[in-house]
Design goal:
With 375 residues, this protein is α/β, with parallel strands linked by helices. It folds into 2 domains: 160 residues, no CATH class; 195 residues, von Willebrand factor, type A domain (Rossmann fold, 3-Layer(aba) Sandwich), CATH 3.40.50. 26% of the residues lie in helices and 25% in strands.
């Protein structure tokens, strides 16, 4: 599967008093020319930034490239001096809740197991946390059954062996008690998220049928997925439907904050479609949140941070910073902090997040010049 790649370059600028005059000039709209790290132009006066050597993919899922740009200081008489710093994407943790009901027998099961195995062993999954549980289990109608995972979330590739072993230890049987399975999955995911506040934690519900046991229904499961979106911490739910007539599963995905379900058509290559869905989920979950690192030898002034996006083959655009998600515009681009007074993450506004997931390009975060605010 081809991939859209978002490269992130974090810059620390204006670190000493001798550069104050240069910073002032950049904040009035000056530019910075770089070497291998690309060219940046920007500041509070509406400038923007682009990095020339950041990789972009050819489409498909979205991956975060946290490679550093050039290490040397960038220089320009009319601009801030900048030193590049490698950034790390927000860590992603997936809790896969896998339907092993009797209807999953045959090629559905073997292809799904093969796809999850391949995903767990894929070098591009390294660094992602993955946990796994199955439904139905005993007692099948108790949410606590599914909040105690067969494989707790652990980082790949170290946790791959446990995931593969668990997949090989069970087989399809029973009904589809999706409601208690989702209740247990959300309980476990939220507990894990509380223990790992800088991680993005998501549920991946994979099923081949409509909820039908233990008072389960699409509406009931959707309500649990909505609780995850509205909860603190937030947990999104992605849905993979294995079959050709599972459009009702879209309701669960939409309630879980992830749009439509990924539908794997059993008339095609089930294994490839399933792993494509997992790769897209990996990219989508990582697209819109970035950690703020502590620069070497100093601290970050949250009032001197800017975010830019350069679409592949296009011109860079600098996005304004909003006070919160609630303040974000319904259309147009922008970003905000997870905490406006003590920020640890940069988050993209909802409309911006949707655009980045579907547009090849590069996001850059620049430190040191006055933050651009909405006009």
């Amino acid at each position: 599967m081809a991939k859209r790649v978002v490269g992130i370059a974090f810059w620390m600028v204006c670190g000493v008093a001798a550069l104050m005059a240069a910073c002032s000039a950049a904040e009035d709209g000056g530019g910075v020319a770089g070497g291998d790290g690309g060219a940046t132009a920007g500041g509070a006066g509406g400038g923007s930034a682009a990095t020339g050597s950041g990789a972009t993919g050819a489409g498909g899922g979205l991956n975060i490239d946290s490679g550093a740009t050039g290490d040397g200081a960038l220089s320009d008489a009319n601009a801030c001096q900048a030193v590049s710093q490698k950034a790390e994407p927000v860590p992603l943790d997936m809790y896969i809740m896998l339907d092993k009901s009797g209807s999953m027998q045959g090629s559905k099961w073997t292809s799904t197991v093969g796809a999850i195995t391949a995903f767990a062993n894929d070098s591009q999954s390294a660094g992602i946390g993955v946990g796994l549980d199955f439904f139905p289990d005993n007692p099948e109608c108790s949410p606590s059954t599914y909040s105690n995972p067969s494989v707790p979330i652990g980082v790949l590739p170290g946790n791959a062996g446990s995931v593969v072993s668990a997949l090989g230890s069970v087989g399809p049987n029973g009904g589809t008690p999706t409601l208690p399975a989702m209740q247990g999955a959300l309980s476990y995911a939220q507990t894990h998220a509380v223990k790992n506040p800088n991680h993005v934690v998501v549920i991946v519900l994979a099923t081949d049928g409509q909820p039908n046991d233990c008072s389960s229904s699409v509406g009931g499961v959707s309500s649990i997925a909505q609780q995850g979106v509205n909860g603190t911490p937030k947990v999104l739910t992605f849905v993979i439907g294995v079959g050709s007539a599972l459009s009702n599963l879209n309701q669960i995905a939409q309630a879980g904050g992830t749009g439509n379900a990924f539908i794997v058509d059993t008339g095609g290559n089930v294994g490839q479609q399933f792993i494509d869905a997992l790769n897209k989920i990996r990219g989508a979950a990582l697209a819109c949140e970035y950690l703020i690192p502590t620069p070497e030898g100093g601290t970050i002034d949250p009032e001197k941070v800017n975010v830019t996006f350069t679409p592949e083959g296009g011109q860079p655009e600098q996005w304004p910073k909003y006070a919160s998600q609630a303040a974000c515009p319904a259309t147009g681009n922008g970003w905000y902090y997870d905490n406006d007074t003590s920020p640890t993450k940069i988050l993209l506004c909802p409309s911006t997040c949707s655009m980045v997931k579907n547009t090849k390009g590069q996001v850059d975060v620049l430190f040191g010049c006055a933050t651009q605010k909405p006009s």
